[in-house]
Amino acid sequence: MSKSSNSDKILVVDDSPDNVFLIKTILEEEGYTVSTAENGASALAQIETSACDLVLLDLMMPGIDGYEVTKRIRQNMALPFIPILLITAHDSPNVAQGLDLGADDFIRKPVTVDELLARVRSLLRLKHSIDERDEIARQRQDFVSRLTHDLRTPLVAADRMLLLFQEGALGNLSDQMQEVIEIMARSNSNLLAMVNTLLEVYRFEAGRKTLAFQPVNVSQLLEEVSEELSSLAAQKELAVNLHLGEDSGISKVMGDRLELHRLFTNLIGNAIKFTDTGSVTIRITPATASDEHITVEVADTGPGIPAEEQATLFERFRQGSHKSSGSGLGLYLSRRIVEAHQGTILMNSEVGKGSVFTVRLPIKQ
Q1: By CB atoms within 10 Å of each CB, which of 10, 105, 222, 361 scores lowest?
Q2: First to last CA, the chain
């Protein structure tokens, strides 16, 4: 037998001391680091306090059996992926239940050395492959997050310098120069918005986004966002209709005001951006005793969204076919914000008749 050159840690869980001794001896002979547990409760406690790379788990144990241990391991989202190899007697019930609960493989007693080691090596390869994949994903997220964060500094500086030029702080500009500066400022602003969106997306995906929940008046927030975007609508001669619903309903939710502001700025901004003629209508339906959700609809009279694009509209980097389509991150980020508030976002659209985006937010978390 060839000695293992790694330091993989294996937890053997079995209520039979003889079985534990046999398996422990075989694995240690191969160079693995082996710890043991005599019951399910002890195994779960060890897994939560000490990392391991593989669990060899007896199915039939008194108290917490192997099925329950498997179920609890897979339900604990704080744990990294740990392969589970079930150990079962010839006369034990079918192991299909254990596999359905999340186990990765099984071996029958009495175990043979070659089969045991082959299955252990196979599951450890799986563990190492998944760990490597996750590490690459984390490194990619860190790189993009740091890159976008670093990009913001020169973009913000350029934005302020261009503003100084526009305000004449550095001398009077000719009409031609003023026009050029305005184009540069607009392009820089668009790029900064894209970088900010990308940064927020990766914060959500990396689990580094912390929301500050507080009571948020959605009606006031929609008024604020509509006012901020009114100049964009005026440039296109679009009417912005705001219907705030009846005063008798509840128009406050527990949410992160900054993120909800980002959400509705994105939805209303998109409605204005993709609508050339007509109007944009924002309608809020307050929560009631029978429905503890606030519903916000953002409807436009734009070109509508083709059916083939609707299924993937809220996925990352999914750009529409419209000439004004952006990075494909805005609606994806909107969905992440809504989901972080335990809400839902839906879209209904028909080509030539516009689109309606509907957000439902619970008033309680």
Answers
A1: 105
A2: 57
Q: How far is CA 286 from CA 186, 289, 294, 347, 348, in A?
A: 37, 10, 5, 19, 21
Residues 220 and 293 in one domain: yes
Tell me what pLDDT residue 38 has. Answer: 93
- Residue 24: domain span: 9-111
301 and 169 part of one domain: no
pLDDT one-digit tens code per residue, 185-209: 888 887 887 777 777 777 777 666 7
Residue with tokens 């990396």: 206
- Reported for 120-124, long-range contacts at CB under 8 A and 24+ positions apart, including other chains, are 120/10, 120/27, 120/32, 120/54, 120/56, 120/85, 123/54, 123/83, 123/85, 124/6, 124/8, 124/53, 124/54, 124/83
Where residue 221 sits, what CATH number does that domain have? 3.30.565.10
Read off the pLDDT of residues 116-168 as tens digits, 9 standing for 90 and up.
999 999 999 999 999 998 888 777 777 776 777 777 788 888 888 888 888 88
Please check whether residues 184 and 224 belong to one and the same domain: no
- Is residue 66 in a domain? yes
CB-neighbour burial class of residue 63 (10 A; exposed 0-12, middle 13-18, buried 19+)? exposed
This prediction has a pTM of 0.55
State how many domains the chain has: 3
Closest alpha carbon to 19 in 61, 75, 71, 53: 61
Helices 218-228 and 257-273: angle between axes, nearest 10 degrees: 50
Q: Is the pLDDT higher at 10 or at 144?
A: 10
